Amino acid sequence: MTHADLLATIERLFVEHGAARYELNDAEGVSQLEHALQCATHAAHAGADDELVAAALLHDIGHLIYNPAEFALDTENDYHETRGAAFLALLGPAVIEPIRLHVDAKRYLCTIEPCYFDALSEGSKQSLAFQGGPFSVVDAEAFLDRAHAAQAILLRRWDERSKVKGESTPPLSQYLHVVERSLLHAFVPVPA
Length: 192
Description:
Number of helices: 11
Number of strands: 0
Shape: globular
Strand content: under 5%
Order of helices and strands: HHHHHHHHHHH
Helix content: 55-70%
Structural class: mainly alpha
Radius of gyration: 16 Å
Largest sheet: none
């Protein structure tokens, strides 16, 4: 897949499936696209670099690859983070690793911050159970040793704040430009 093909496919997925409910039971009241745009907007407002803003936008794209009308988030773990990271491989580790780790970041935060679990939406609590629940203390410590864990934790915090019905955000086109810049950054040769 070329860079242009990937960008076109990302846009097509959001156009065709972005109106799908974020949660199967519609507990959040936002669509997949609204959630993605809100998350990217939080990242941008926090001063995140292009790669982390792109990760925020695309962190749940695995739901859109898997038929969103049929995904069973409320009955099983659908491994959307792994599927999404694999699909986005051209974007490089600075984008795909926070995406791959954002579910583990939720598990981590639930272990080290008990109030984090209490603040989760009902949909997030329900999916957490299918995703393995909070980490053990040993697993939480090991998580921090993973490359891009810190970025995944930031992404996770923006993710939880990105479920506000009717929140105003910039359009998808603005963030597709960020994804395009991230593609270019992923393949810029490092000076020797």
